Structure prediction request, 164 residues.
Amino acid sequence: MNKYSTIHTTSNNIVNNECLVWIAEVGKWPVRNILEGGYARDLNWHVKQIFHRAFKTVQQRPTADERAQGLVCILDFEGLKLEELTYLPSALFLFSFIENVIGVINKFVGDLIILNASYLAEAIMRFLRPVLGGIFERTVIYGTNKAVWLPKLRRLISANNLPE
Prediction:
């Protein structure tokens, strides 16, 4: 899981009120394989470590407790297979995890951007939005057409804060 649990963050040298950006390539995570192998506890630990490392970047900022300071979380679903979304233990793991971290996310994350979402993922997020509220009301979902979402993303976030 270590090779999948990277989270890209922008430099802590934030100037001109630029936002701090977290990017997690969750579409590459083999959640189903991990759960089928009996490693749910390890997966939970690794995901918590990702959040721990990400929130350390928030604490290093001058105004760490203010959501309004422009913290943006980008979840890239590129490569996510339908089997991951339709496997019941994966879905239950996801819902359980969201339930455990939603308060912290609502406090620190200003905006959530989902990239490369399949139609099913978009439908699930649209269903969850009114139920979960908070961050899900500040979520923008883009499909798999990079030519559509990349220009919009570049208008929201400076090129300095986006990887290639």
